[in-house]
Amino acid sequence: MQIFNTPIEYLKGVGPQRAEVLKKEIGVFTYQDLLHYYPFRYIDKTRYYKINEIGFDFPLVQILVRLKSFEVIGEKQSKRLVARVVDETGELELVWFKGLKWIEKTLKINHLYVVFGKPTFFNGKPQMAHPEMELFSKESKERGNLSLQPVYSSTEKLKQFSLDSKGIQKLMSNLLDTVFSEIEEVLPSYILEKYKLLSRRDALLQIHFPTNSTVLSRAQATLKFEELFFIQLKLLKIKHLRTLKFKGNVFATVGNKFNYFYENLLPFQLTGAQKRVLKEIRFDSQKGIQMNRLVQGDVGSGKTVVALMSMLLAIDNGFQACMMAPTEILATQHYASIKSMLPDDFVNIALLTGSTKKKDRKKILEDLVIGTLNILVGTHALIEETVVFKHLGLAVIDEQHRFGVEQRAKLWKKNLIPPHVLVMTATPIPRTLAMSLYGDLDVSVINELPAGRKPIQTIHLYENQRLRMFGYMRREIAKGRQVYVVYPLIQESAKLDLKNLQDGIEVLSREFPLPQYKISIVHGQLKPDEKEFEMQRFIKGQTQIMVATTVIEVGVNVPNASVMIIENAERFGLSQLHQLRGRVGRGSEQSFCILMSKDKLSKEGKVRLETMVKTNDGFEISEVDLQLRGPGDIEGTQQSGILDLKLADLTQDQNILHEARKTVLEIMEADPELQNAEHQILGNFFHKHNTGITLDKIS
Ligand SMILES: Nc1ncnc2c1ncn2[C@@H]1O[C@H](COP(=O)(O)OP(=O)(O)OP(=O)(O)O)[C@@H](O)[C@H]1O
After folding, report:
1. Considering only 42-56, 83-97, 294-308, 534-548, which range has the smallest mean pLDDT?
2. Where in the chain are the domains?
3. What is the mean pLDDT of the chain?
4. Which residues touch 288 (CB under 8 Å, ≥6 apart)?
5. Which of 138, 147, 143, 121 is nearest to 51 (CA)?
6. Distance, CA of 338 to CA of 312 (rounded, Å)
7. Pairing of strands 119-122, 125-129
8. 256-446, which class in CATH?
9. Which residues line ligand 1 (CB under 6 A)?
10. 316 three-class SS
11. Which numeric CATH code is attached to 457-615?
12. Cβ-contact 63, 48 below 8 angstroms
């Protein structure tokens, strides 16, 4: 095993200088790092193309040509090296914009070259920019036998040390010579057989030196499976260790508060999905095992009431509960909506945020320690050291996936027996991401909207159709409804944001003048109490229009609002648009979402707006979002470690992820300690590669 940790300078063909560049440029420090430096594509080398075959939109090709001439032309930015190459059918231009000096030095007139690249047409002539090229030699003829030529990504700096794709491949060949016999299997053989995976040795060999495309696909599938399998194993192992280490508070009874609320106070019938999720929570919380559950529900699906009833359950069993929200506005909103559902002296409930006054804060903390405070709602202020509960039984985190495994663990530090944890997310997360990001949690889904909701109608309008937008606003306000108008927040320029907003307000105030119409304005530059004041005016129905930057994005609940207008909608991400739209359609009347955009949209911007018009389904939207942006840009993924994926791609490899997770679940069910003979191999891998999972880490 240790051989894989050998520093890369010891590999034949590397040495100290190249080692430095490999480390700096592509993070390759050890043999192992290089072994997992996979090609990012393969060139079909079964043939050489002729220049006169090259057409528009051609794939990567390999051609055999003679170099006739080259020269550096242009100034500054447009400075480039242009080379003229020919074969018996025609002439082609090769162009480089970077690394000119280096390339110029290596080119040899009248020699034969093998050139790879993606051809295009420029000014009517075939051209190839930044091609890879090597002198034609006996060796390249032989390597031509490899029908699929791997391409490794390289950098200008690496190339200066002859580590272009070919150079890296040479190192790979040396590496495999050295370590091949040491590569050990990591997956049990029954899994390899079941999924027709290659042995690990073959997979690693084939991914770097593929014999043909069929074997290559199997090699890729094998390594992807392995990668995703071990992430899942890690997550589910955390979960298992947690159950071993922590007893859970037992919520044995469904008591008076819960029942009274359900029978007398609940203003509507729970949906089937809400009931099911509550049942799951009740079942979990009476087992004596700490609950860690994710409740996923689309916007407006009624998560707050589920959270509240779970908290009542905790209180009925002699515990306290807390609810944590990512922003002050949201925490305040949760606090207000919970209070509004309960009579005054039903439970003791308080709000704690960064702007709670010193005196109030002191009283809250005292009540918390002696246990007279039942529910504490707040922001991240709740996990500060000074906040001490007498007996915290349940923590609800309304988190919009801002918390990863480790952050959640912070909450548990507060208690000998950690509280049950309920994570609520409104933005639907694509299934694959949810599995990876929250793989250690049990998942409940509220997949049903309250009865009587009409699907929101979404309309996309361009600037020259603004009058129609005013029309919608007037009509709805005349019916007694309220309207949101939202402007994007351009983080880099708070001033510009404000200007945008102010211009918008000016126009709106002209169209909707006082005293008939009243407008609330909320933006990031206001103090918390000013924001709160403006929000309250709108919530209470004293104003009909709420103009805001995206501060209202999540969680605001004004059922009477029926129009959501989003200005510069093309600037928003899909999940944000969906969240914003979710602020309307929360009552029983027909609601509208109007997406205002500029005329010229990018391709992606167009897809986003079309998707919004087409569907109201948050899960569908999140899948499109994942495809457009990739997992890296989706909030929360940073902390999860799933971005370190070397090969697997969460968008394309959903099936593999699914199967990997299923396999791990079966293993953890049957043999959680990984002691069976067939699973020892997994235990070994786990310990050797230490994935960072120890009891300390999760305590
Ligand atoms: N079963 C139900 N029947 C009717 N109305 C309901 C039901 N459950 C919740 N509601 C109402 O629907 C609205 C949305 O509920 P809630 O605020 O809990 O949604 P949410 O899931 O938190 O959504 P978001 O993430 O968008 O804030 C509220 O006005 C709430 O009172």
Report:
1. 42-56
2. 41-151, 213-246+651-698, 256-446, 457-615
3. 85
4. 247, 248, 250
5. 121
6. 11
7. antiparallel
8. alpha beta
9. 268-271, 274, 297, 299-305, 426, 450, 555, 557, 559, 582, 586
10. helix
11. 3.40.50.300
12. yes
Residue 284 Cα to ligand 1 midpoint, Å, equals 23
In the block, tokens 């520093």 appear at 7
Site to substitute for ligand 1 among 269, 556, 586, most atoms within 8 A of C-beta: 586
Model confidence pLDDT, tens digit, residues 64-83:
999 999 999 988 878 899 99
Extract the tokens encoding 477.
């306000």
The predicted structure's pLDDT at residue 435: 66
Query: Which numbered atom of ligand 1 lies nearest the CA of 299?
Result: 26
Look at the block and give the residue holding tokens 């508070």: 249
Nearest CA to 565 out of 589, 537, 543, 545 is that of 545
pTM equals 0.68
Q: Taking the CB of residue 270, how many other CB atoms lie within 10 A of it?
A: 17
Best CA proximity match to 306, nearest among 295, 316, 298: 295
**How many whole angstroms separate alpha carbon 159 and alpha carbon 304?**
57
The reported pLDDT for the residue numbered 366 is 96
CB burial class (10 A; 0-12, 13-18, 19+) of residue 91?
Answer: middle
Q: Which residue from 242, 240, 237, 251 is spatially nearest to 288, judged by alpha carbons?
A: 251
Structure tokens of 528? 């918390």
Highest-scoring range by mean pLDDT, 142-146, 156-160, 688-692 = 156-160
Q: What is the CA radius of gyration of the chain?
A: 31
d(CA 520, CA 548): 8
Measure Cα distances from 227 to 34, 231, 517, 672 in Å.
16, 7, 59, 19
**Is domain 41-151 in CATH 3.40.50.300, yes or no?**
no
Q: Do domains 256-446 and 457-615 have the same CATH topology?
A: yes
Token pair 């290596």: residue? 106
Tokens of 110: 């009248």
User: Residue whose CA is closest, atom 31 of ligand 1?
Assistant: 302
Amino acid code (one letter) for 672? P
Closest residue by Cα to residue 369 from 383, 387, 389: 389
The residue whose C-alpha atom lies closest to atom 14 belonging to ligand 1 is 300
Dist CA 153 CA 135 (whole Å): 20
| Among 544, 534, 535, residue whose Cα is nearest residue 480 | 544
For residue 306, give the ligand 1 atom closest to its CA. Answer: 18
pLDDT in tens, 620-679: 888 888 777 765 544 444 444 444 678 887 767 878 888 998 999 999 999 988 889 899
ipTM for this prediction: 0.97
Report the distance separating Cα 273 and Cα 446, nearest Å. 5
- Report the C-alpha dihedral over residues 382, 385, 388, 389, rounded to 10 degrees: 50
CA–CA distance, 174 with 605 (Å, rounded to integer): 47
Q: How far apart are CA 356 and CA 657, in angstroms?
A: 45
Q: Which residue has the tokens 């709420």?
A: 546
Structural contact between residues 300 and 585, judged by C-beta atoms closer than 8 angstroms = yes
For residue 504, the SS3 value is helix
Gap from CA of 300 to ligand 1 centroid (Å): 5
Q: What are phi and psi of 577, to 5 degrees?
A: -60, -45
Q: What's the rounded mean pLDDT across residues 305-316? A: 96
**Structure confidence at residue 7 (pLDDT):** 94
Nearest CA to ligand 1 atom 8: 302
